[in-house]
Amino acid sequence: MEKRELICIGCPLGCMVTVTMENGAVTAVEGNTCKRGDDYARKEVTNPTRIVTSTVMVQGGSDVTVAVKTRSDVPKDKIFDCVKALKGITVKAPVHIGDVIVADVAGTGVDIVATSEVK
Hints:
This protein is α+β, with helices and mostly antiparallel strands. The chain is 17% helix and 38% strand. The longest helix has 12 residues, at 35-46.
């Protein structure tokens, strides 16, 4: 039996959560005060994911860079691949919130989208 302690980021409370695992499967989650804590803890120990944020260069715009992020979370082990895929990317202005900057980044099935506007 293995126990892992996490600080939940599912809501603002930041509960200290203990996950008990046996043979790679979650058998218990304790310490969470809401359902999101249980969901977060189970996912974090079995398939951790993250949102990736960065910037890319903009050509001919009011700003030289635009903020971008993954549309949804990606497997934690793909973070560096996502960041590498953004290296050298330059988009032409105008850029609008939600514009797809890179489709299916690093083979994750998740798009990189703009999170700000550049005129």
